[in-house]
Amino acid sequence: MDNPKEIRRKYNQKWGFGMAPLKSKMEYEYKKAVYSVYKILTGIVSANEMDLDDISKLKGLINRCLRQDQWDWFTVYAKFGEPNPQILKSIPHFLTKLRRAVKK
Fold it and tell me: Which of 32, 39, 75, 85 has the fewest CB atoms below 10 angstroms from its CB?
């Protein structure tokens, strides 16, 4: 019998760490964020039409690929086409600067 003072956590691991599939709602949100940033960078939309949360979401996606600390990090990394991590490292800082510029 388990000791009541001992906290035990049981995980049902179906995938290797980082390889959890994306839920359809989250995949939609991630794609929307990527496309929104793409549209601002290519001039399809103006800064005042940009959703700042999309920039933050994309930054979070890049960071999870770099940190490899989330259950779906490799799934996201694969969706990006498994880019060189050295190239990814500069993107979060750029996205922070972009968000500040769009916010003004």
Answer: 85
Domain span holding position 93: 24-103
Q: Which residues contact 98 (CB under 8 A, 6 or more apart)?
A: 37, 40, 55
Convert the pLDDT of each residue in 39-81 to its tens digit.
Answer: 999 999 988 888 999 999 999 999 999 999 999 999 999 999 9
Evaluate whether 21 touches 27 at the Cβ level (below 8 Å).
Answer: no
The DSSP code for 21 is P
Q: Give the separation between CA 61 and CA 79, rounded to whole angstroms.
A: 11
Instruction: Examine residue 37 and state whether it is found in any structural domain, yes or no.
Output: yes
pLDDT band at 6 (very low <50, low <70, confident <90, very high): low
Residue 12 lies in a domain: no
Instruction: Provide the domain count of the chain.
Output: 1
State how far Cα 66 lies from the chain centre. 10
10 in a domain, yes or no?
no
